[in-house]
Amino acid sequence: MKKTIKHLVSAMAVALFLFIAFGSDDEETAKEKTAKEKTAKDFVGQTFDLDTYHRVKFETESRYWIYQKPLNCGGNGNWSIENGKIILGSNDSNCESTRAKKGSYEKSRF
Amino acid sequence: MKDNIVPAAKARGLTTQCDKKRVLLNFKSGDYAKQNERQYYLVRHIANLQTVMSNTKMKKQLFIGHILTLLLGGFVYISFRQDTLKMFSWFDRVNMLEAISDFRLFTLPLSVYLPNWFLYSLPDGLWLFSYLSLLLIVWDNEISKHNIHWLLLLPSVAILTEIGQLFAIVHGTFDILDLTFYLGGTILPILIFTNSKTIKDKTT
N or C terminus of chain A with fewer C-beta within 10 Å? Predict the structure, then answer.
């Protein structure tokens, strides 16, 4: 294969893989919503860091999963949005610090 | 003498495997012409074997290194990730969303049993692995100053973006697992597929 063709194919490969990466990105519509506008549905499937060690994932519109990085002390709990705030209910983690993450959080934090 | 090997062999009509065996059988020590003919056939035979092996390796690299890894990464995204990704709106435009949604009815509940590294980090590593496998095929598994920029373009963007997240320069959450899989997806194909002797300045 001639070098020019190789460069051309390489450029096409870069374009293809950038296209794939673009497709795996989240829709901007959800991001553009302000924290005030976001509903429980907007958070489903999203993962957020509460602090350096604790990460929470909103699995459904009512259930969340929390764990300590890297991947231990995981636990499930219920969550909801009340008065514009996210309420993390008690979770069944084996770690005290992870269980202590239940409480009320500003939506803008997520 | 060496330059005369090929014409001499061809002049005698020695082109088939039987001819090759005949030359080998007739070879006697001290008979330089026949010795050269034998060397000619051995070299040609080895060259043919190398070509066959190289083609087999390239095919494996294409199907396993490039296509399979890309499909596996895509499978993880389609099966287990949230449907707010752009790709799902693309599927909708080509009337594939309904079929994919039906498929996700079976796969999505399984996502709670899968580790986060599998769902969120592995596909990124597979993406880079697939990219590098493809480009290495294009460049005959050789790394040189002519192709290093292509090979490292997307890995650099991915890794620098992840590091940028660590310092809050780039939007997103830094994850050491993401970075690890990015590095793995970059280094492994190079280690597996590249001929170590080819990492040099090739000017031709």
Answer: N
